[in-house]
Amino acid sequence: MFEERDAKAPQQGDFWVVREDLPRAAAGTFYRKLDETLRAIGFAEAVREVCRPAYRASSAGGRPGIDPAVYFKMLMIGFFENLPSERAIASRCEDSLSLRAFLGYDLTEATPDHSSLSVIRTRLGVDVYQAALEIVLKALREHKNLKI
In this structure, is residue 15 part of a structural domain? Predict the structure, then answer.
């Protein structure tokens, strides 16, 4: 019928897991629909263009820059999930399969850490944040998703 298991007996977990056997990261319904909307309005391209002056090409080394579209998506996650800090946002994004899918990160890729988010925050001026917000608000108006 079934094998009885002693709840107190220690269980040996798998030591190796084949990558293909891991669950696929699929964005939850909310984030999937949000991603569809952001793609439809050309959000990533528009935000990259707005942020271009703040990102200078450098071959001096250091970590590669984080895509501005990923940064603003992470800020959205912080807002939607009421996360109080960049550290909390980074931790949540690192831990969630659905958020990894929303951000475009595979299970084996490192998501941006909180210190990178802080660097970007200080790099971007108020005008960049205003422009990014206007991109989203304009699209919401055009798609009749904004109630005023």
Answer: no
